[in-house]
Amino acid sequence: METISAAMLFDLQGFAHREVFPMEAPVWETLSGLKSYLESRLVSSVKGVGLYGEPLPKTVVLFGGKVWFDGFEILGGDPTKGTFRVRVRGEETTEATVLYAGCVFMDAAVQLGKGTVVEPGALIKGPTLIGNGTEVRQGAYIRGTCLVGDRCVVGHTTELKSSIFLNGAKAGHFAYVGDSILGNNVNLGAGTKLANLKIKGNTIRIWTDEGVLDTGRRKLGAIIGDGTEIGCNAVTNPGTILGKRCLVFPLASVAAGVYKERSVVGGRK
Asked: pTM here?
């Protein structure tokens, strides 16, 4: 039976952490090695910014290898488009990382890229590594063992756990993403849920045209190929693999299994 590899679903050339994917193994095995990968490469960005587990009392800027508690002016813009500007001691830049007052870091094992913004009320646990120009919106909950690429959005009241976002992936509103991988420029509509645990409690199996693959994992959400769009309030069942540029209609319940490139799921038949 053909291995479902990362190369079948993602263009990894522009992803800074492409070595996290075992090229000859099934793509879901990436999640098994994610924590050790993060722990071996992560360099904390949040040491000295405030007390762990408590909201930041004031807005902080990271720039030029320093933590700035004052001497800056936030001019605004869109982090994912590289237009979020900050003036630091008279120097205007789009490479400053902004941690707004009220966001919470539960421990030091968090790395944040240049031009990334963490809004008030977001809570992040480590190990978590976030790339450049990413927006972590108000009320987002990143529960740890997460790798988020460049120009991504972890949205309002979105919960992210043991998952990977490749560059440009977005879960903008009210989403749950557990034990899942989102490819480049994947977009989850508001209210999307990527279910990761079967009710019966056995290991997750994936149905293919050639037979059934037992992943050996108790938890596995969705693995979503580059450019796929999922409509509002859709739910994927544990063990869903969507190929590149698929379209899932709003309110769809996506059965576990493998969907080929450009599949359309839900809607009128």
From this structure: 0.96
